[in-house]
Amino acid sequence: MFDQPESFVTSDGRTIGGVMMEMKNITLRFGGVVAIQDISFDIREGEIRAIIGPNGAGKSSMLNVISGFYNPQEGEVWYKGERRPSMKPFEVARQGIARTFQNIALFEGMSVLDNVMTGRLNHMKAGILSQAFWYGSAQREETENREVVERVLDFLEIQHIRKTPVSRLPYGLKKRVELARALAADPKILLLDEPMAGMNVEEKEDMSRFILDVNDEFGTTIALIEHDMSVVMDISDRVVVMDYGKKIGDGTPKDVRSNQAVIDAYLGVAHD
Amino acid sequence: MFPDQFLFGVEVMLNGLMAGVLYALVALGFVLIFKASGIFNYAQGVMALFGALTLVGIMDGQVPFAHLINSVFGTDVHHFGWHVPAFLSILLVMVVMVGLAWCVQHFIFRHLVGQEPIILFMATIGLAYFMEGFGDMMWNSEIKKLDIGIPQGGSMWIEEATSFLGGTNFYGFFIDKLEIVASLVAIVLVIVLVAFAQYTKQGRAMRAVADDHQAALSVGISLSFIWVLVWSLAGFVALVAGIMWGAKSGVQFSLSLIALKALPVLMLGGFTSIPGAIVGGLIVGVGEKLFEFLIGAPFLGGATENWFAYMLALVFLVFRPQGLFGEKIIERV
Amino acid sequence: MFYRESGDFSETYPADSQTFPIKFDRYRYYAVLVVAFLIIPFIINDYWANAILVPFLIYAIAAIGLNILVGYCGQVSLGTGGFMAVGAYACYKLMTTFPDVSIMFHILISGGITAAVVTLFGLPSLRIKGFYLAVATLAAQFFLVWLFNRVAWFYNYSASGQINAPDRTVFGHLVTGPNTDAWAKYMICLVFLTFAGIVARNLTRGSLGRKWSAIRDMDIAAEIIGVNPLSAKLSAFAISGFFIGISGALFFSVYLGAVEVGEAFGIQKSFLVLFMIIIGGLGSVFGSFAGAAFMVLLPVLLKNVLVGGLGWDTALAAHLEFVIVGALIIIFLIAEPHGLAQLWRVAKEKLRLWPFPH
């Protein structure tokens, strides 16, 4: 349904590249419950791709399939032109896919800095002896990665709380720290699970701005799930609409907005 | 007529079953508390010890803290000089166990609501230490005889009735009367507990709390009342286990170690399942006796009962982490 | 007034991630090292060495080991006693099989052997969590004690079933055996403790430490951001086992000299070390020191006051010790789950602002 050339330029001047990840006929079941039924879509390089749908539509399950937490019973995940074999979540992460969580999943016993540093773990390779005596590669690596992390903290405007334990932060800041942790991993694809859930208007605006800035400055491909229709329509390039585990729409926000099935399933009910 | 070796094996199994019943009894106390409050009560065994100690103390008319009083005031008190009948003593100890339950809830777990399970577990280890020292200070730590009139010794009747099964070297199954009584008591106790949970108002409230704390609160169930209730019930179960075990091998420190044996029982049976606790207890009881009889004593130098249950549970857990009857765990993000 | 960080800026990232970023702390650390290495060895006597300092040093190593596993990686173990026994028996076998090799190597290799054994028992942690795992480690505890009790090869077929440490020297000075000087016992333990403390501190502030803490705080999220739970957990088991093994080896060879396994390394030992880290502070190297000191000093203190001062008998004092330890565990878990280390931090916070708290 989407016939576009290898790469194209959007109305606001960003370049969208070729297909980076493709989901082919994914079906996911829990016992007898079908969470996702035969869904296919792709994610192109550099775009902001949204997955929307009413509660229980299977959006979170979809994100979990992409990040390797669930393995679908049927279907294939293609990444960078190759079929991805069934993988453990940490292996998927090492391929450059980072994510945030709907219910914040920060490491509560650590400071903001340490939390964001965990995002760099896959870039740190120092051996155990070097770490034990804190010489050579361990020390060098720590400093190099600290610099990367400080840039991310700076970018998301949370430098001032770097030494604060995350358990003391308010909700909105926690969400931002989580974004920082995912971003610190330098991901090829960034998955955001309801990044604006539970936020007030101001915080939502901040978060939207950060998402757009991340995409703009680092060229990061972003796939996000969101409830808030208005925000999604504003920031995403293309939208997949799900309902009861099936795909009922796929296209630009404008296309989706005028799609009758989507209006029936979602828009007409949630937004009058 | 069966070969003697086989019959000895059967006898070992029967004795294992009896030991298993006692393990199951202790495990039951764990399950009760765990289901209702998510607390894994390491102190269950010490509660059994404490119950038995207090029972002996009351029956013999010991002066509580005699040792301490004598040390501080230089006096020489030890006994009041009276004897309390067993039945009355048991009632008194039950009152003590309720008091203990209230203290545990009021002074410890009320302050730990919402903590991680592992913190609660470590708190019960602290509780176990506290109670062990406290019990010893109150009633001193000598090994005591506990006799409340349960018949003891091998049952001649069973021996004679079964001796025809084997050859001349086989004299019939040796089964201790005490263990038969213990098994009967355990069975009655389980029936009473299940009936309590199913048919009484408090029992229903207890199950509601076990299911969902928040929901139970919202329909007006008092959590702290329920928790005192389950700790009291667990205290009674511990008392029964303490009486049985104490009558068998004296009231002493090692009694608190049977609690440790109940842990593998729970890992086999699943932490939330009453039938699981019973089946697990029987498996452990029979398994460790048979293993010792068939493999441990002849080939491994004996005393394998010390670890067999844990190793069994460990191997089992790796293949079925939720136990025999536990619910399957689905992980979510 | 003297304790302050104003005017004490970190200008580089390495300076900011060092162990003692505040100058005053750094100087105090050097001062402690000077006292421990250059003053105490000259004034120590047998009573102080045997009753307080040597057990403190050895337990502190074990506590550091257990704290890595429990406090940093969140995997509760009740098998410490059994694991210390592995270190002790490994050391004994090495000492008697290779009498010409330095005991320093024996102790280090004992740590390595223990690390392997602990890792083996850590394998179930990949499938089971929380207190399920804690109970599984009990299997290790009981099995290992039974093993060293029943298999005569481990105690060289001695009639008593005990193991006895032969005389061994380091740089010509006896460090094991009944004729060892107090300062020599103290020094060898101090060297290993310093080593353990530095390594533990470095590991826990680096990338491995962050992996452990991530697994502890939220294992599923940790796996999704790219931490391999297998390697993270097993490395914690291995390093924890390494230190616990060293402490077991020292406990046998330097401190006790003769060991009967059930008595020295029973389940009570597992709890003792666990209590040290709860009281001292989970997830803190300093807390391991504080907890070990506390748990070593408490019985000595009670004995001196109650038995020596008030004339109580020792059994009663021992019972009271149980009551106090049990109560303290509960109080710490309720009031200060991060233990003495946190109290210390709070005190420093206060001191930093003193005398103007606002």
Descriptive overview:
- The complex is a heterotrimer of chains A (about 270), B (about 325) and C (about 350).
- Chain A has about 270 residues and is α/β, with parallel strands linked by helices.
- Chain A contains 10 helices and 12 strands.
- Chain A has helices at about 60-65, 90-95, 110-120, 130-135, 135-155, 170-185, 200-220, 230-235, 255-260, 260-270; strands at about 10, 15, 20-30, 35-45, 50, 75-80, 80-85, 95-100, 190-195, 220-225, 240-245, 245-250.
- In chain A, a hairpin with a 2-residue loop joins strand 11 (about 240-245) and strand 12 (about 245-250).
- In chain A, helix 3 packs parallel to helix 6 (about 170-185) and helix 5 packs across helix 6 (about 170-185).
- The relative contact order of chain A is 0.17.
- In chain B, helix 1 (about 5-35) packs across helix 8 (about 200-210) and helix 11 crosses helix 12 (about 275-300).
- Chain C has about 350 residues and is an all-alpha fold.
- Chain C has a domain at about 45-265.
- Helix content of chain C is about 75%, strand content about 0%.
- In chain C, helix 4 runs antiparallel to helix 5 (about 105-120) and helix 5 packs across helix 10.
- Chain C is globular.
- The relative contact order of chain C is 0.15.
- The mean pLDDT of chain C is about 90.
- At the A-B interface, loops of A face loops of B.
Put the structure in a nutshell.
Chain A contains 10 helices and 12 strands.
Low-confidence stretches of chain B: none
The termini of chain B sit apart by 62 Å
Radius of gyration of chain B: 21 Å
Summed over residues and divided by their number, the pLDDT of chain B gives a mean of 82
Report strand % of chain B: under 5%
Query: In total, how many domains does the architecture of chain B comprise?
Result: 1
Q: Largest sheet of chain C, order of strands side by side?
A: 1-4
Order of helices and strands of chain C: HHHHHHEEEHHHHEHHHHH
Backbone structural class of chain B = mainly alpha
User: In one word, what is the shape of chain C?
Assistant: globular
Shape of chain B: globular
Rounded to the nearest angstrom, the radius of gyration of chain C is 21 Å
